Amino acid sequence: MKTIKELIREGLTEVAATRDINRQESIKRVYKACPDLKDIDDQILEVRNSRFIAVIDNDERLIKRFDVAEEELIAKRDKIIARNNIDPDFDQEKSICDKCGDTGFTKGSDGTVKVCSCRKRELEMCYEQSGMADYSSYKMKNYRDDYLGNAASRKKIKNELLKVMLGLDSGEGKSPLCVYSAPPQTGKTFLAVGVCKTAINLGKSAFYAKCEDLATIGTDTLDDLKHIDFLVIDDFADAVTMYNNVGSILNSILETRAAAGLSTVLVTPFPKSELVNKCDMRISGKLQSAKLISSEGR
Ligand SMILES: [Zn+2]
Question: pTM score, two decimals?
């Protein structure tokens, strides 16, 4: 998997090439409209080349003469530019995106750095590569607090998950592992995908996986899952950890992530207490100290 920062970095070469093409086009356009300017610029170039040779020859008198000549040409050039209403920066490279200056990231008024809207393509590509190819329509902004009633509780769960994702919840002695438990059909997957996409939008590396899929995910990706900033494991259930080596794979991921203090969320329809009792022993131990985020009465 590639992180959003890697994808944006890869796109920079293309953006730089486009900037250069735009600059060349702008010069061509201005010279065509004002051949006098092209003529002056050619002369300036010639004077500079001659001055360069004079420097090598160490000919002080000649250097001075070229300096004066260049000054005169530049004064003429400024006049032409002003008289013809030409943008004085017409021959400079300009950012393609004014919002981010082509860095791919913008800073909001609240100080948060986010992927710029000009990198939507990279963002979608990153979601796809981060386990969310099947959820292209899931968007955090469409998560409704008042869906199925109990808006306060849904909003609280959403905010707690966002805090875990941002690492705001971690602290001395606190586990970076979190169990998000809610009954079936309450929009758990929608919210989990939304939080995971938000993480990527903030420039983090993140991944969404179904617990049972840990058995079939390639070893390279499994290794990535140990080190990315934020990981969501959905459809977590004690039975799933008993088959296809899933318990052992998950245990090893959780161990490495806990040691590095990286946030992981296990999404499950079962109450945490039930999971602690029934899970693979190694996982069960980790669940005990995990933070619980759940709907009321769980
Ligand atoms: Zn931009």
Answer: 0.85
